[in-house]
Amino acid sequence: MSLALVSHSTYLDHDEPSHPECAARLRSINSAIAADTQLSALLQPLEPRRATDAEILAVHQAGLLHQLEHMAADGGDWADPETYVLPNSVEIARLAAGGALAAVSAVLDQRVDQAFALIRPPGHHATPSTAMGFCLFNNAAIAAQFARDQYGLERVAILDWDVHHGNGTQDIFENDPHVLYISTHGWPLWPGTGHWREMGGQAGAGSILNLPLPPLTGDMGFDMAFRQVIAPAIQSFRPQLLIVSAGYDAHIQDPLGSLAVSTAGYANLAAIVYNLAAEVCDGRLVGLLEGGYNLEALAHSVVATLRTWLQLPHGASAHAATHIPEPDLTPLINALRAAHPLVQR
């Protein structure tokens, strides 16, 4: 089993230290991986590359690229009240998108079995026209479209387990039958999109699958949602590549989230998607870092994901499952089974 890890020191240079999405996030992950000598010895380092204009514009409008470049050239600004742009941020965002592309190429070229990209800034809130929610370019969307355009894949699935709905990814692919976007997210929670009734439109009807989860949904609820809704949808769609928008802010310790997943819960989700990829797409699996703002929880959960994908045993940090009362997801699951074409029974 082989797993590539995309990382680059330049990702640390997009940094507002007082902002939740800061370089300390990546430093904490890097430190945790380095401290795990068994894991770090098995990971295959993979250099990112710079995404081209054409690769970015395959999912974004030219106006967004021009706006961000002008902000950077003028010394930096805020794309929205939460999203900072420094003089070097656009080039770093190109390298983040290019890290996602490098991960996809490594897997599709069969150089490795799976890949995980430790990239930032994150991407899943960036819409075709707008940078928002800490995100400049939509890394997962760029990667999925690249797999379609450059490798000729007919079906790509993006599974987003960040606590916030990936409104940008949904906007990009909601009318596209070739890309399935699945999101588990806290509800109600910013950005306020991602109702279960949002299933895609026009030719893309059924290409969106949203699971808006009530506060304090944790390990048990996520396991139920993944096994009873997400797994059947992926099995029905049969993607040729599975991309995970891997946000870790659904962790019970995260300061920006409303859900209650433990590190052990993330290891379980990683195992489910690993097995799904093995079943439907010959193991072709790519993880892309999104959110996660409790540094210790983030680092431990990324390590748990990587160890799971390498079929390694877990340390103590991945065994502390949550045991709290959780809301009943049965009404949501039943509604999706009755209405969503990929889940219907």
CATH architecture: 3-Layer(aba) Sandwich
Q: Superfamily at the CATH H level?
A: Histone deacetylase domain
The portion of residues forming beta strands comes to 5-15%
Please, what is the average pLDDT? 97
Low-confidence stretches: none
Nutshell version of this structure?
This protein has 345 residues and is of the alpha/beta class.
List the helices and strands and how they pair.
Blueprint: E1 3-6, H1 23-35, H2 37-42, E2 44-46, H3 53-57, H4 62-73, E3 77-80, E4 83-85, H5 89-108, E5 114-117, H6 139-151, E6 156-160, H7 167-173, E7 179-186, E8 208-213, H8 219-237, E9 241-246, H9 263-280, E10 285-289, H10 295-309, H11 330-339
Parallel strand pairs: 1-2, 1-5, 5-10, 6-7, 6-9, 7-8, 9-10
Antiparallel strand pairs: 3-4
Structure commentary:
- The protein starts with a strand and ends in a 6-residue tail after the last helix.
- By secondary structure, it is an alpha/beta fold.
- The chain has a single domain, classed as Arginase, Chain A.
- The chain has helices at about 25-35, 35-40, 55, 60-75, 90-110, 140-150, 165-175, 220-235, 265-280, 295-310, 330-340; strands at about 5, 45, 75-80, 85, 115, 155-160, 180-185, 210-215, 240-245, 285-290.
- The chain is globular and about 55 Å long.
- The mean pLDDT is about 95.
- α1 crosses α10 (about 295-310) and α8 packs parallel to α9 (about 265-280).
Give structural attributes:
345 residues; alpha/beta; Arginase, Chain A; eight-stranded parallel sheet; two-stranded antiparallel ribbon; 11 helices; 10 strands
